[in-house]
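Worked example 2:
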Amino acid sequence: MPYRFQGQHKDEEVVLICRQHPMILLRPALIVVALMWVPFLAYTVLAVGQLLAVILLFCLLLALGEGYRAWHAWHNSMLLLTNERLVMMEQRHLFKREFMECALGSIQQVSHTVEGVVATTFGFGTLSVFTAGAHDPFQLRNIPNPYELQQEIQRVGSGEGYIEEGDAPSEQE
């Protein structure tokens, strides 16, 4: 069954779905691990019994909250390339989501940057799309395989067709 999204036009087909690179979840995961070490350190340093239970519960709630917030933002941020337009949905905070779109015909330039050792090693970067009439490009950071995605947007935008769903270089579900 093809992917459907809110606001999709009647004859519009989703060509490619791309989420941010999962590597961006590393930092929140390290925070969760650090929060789980706090009760252990409190027990060894302070050697308190009942206070340890309160500290453990507090750290567990913080860790779960941080883990969910990071996963929610990653899971709900995506770039959709359709046969008519480019749609970018970015979950900024738990209750703030940005939805940007542009018609393929209004795209003037697509570029990407890969910056830093981690991004170069794991192959992710920032995709920038410049459109007619807009002063600033809209960007999606931490996109896997940004060069292949840039080429696919240009290929579909120029009307050359698109690669089949199973062959998409950076398609993730």
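The radius of gyration is 21 Å. The beta strands are 14-19, 78-82, 85-93, 96-103, 107-113, 124-131, 138-144.
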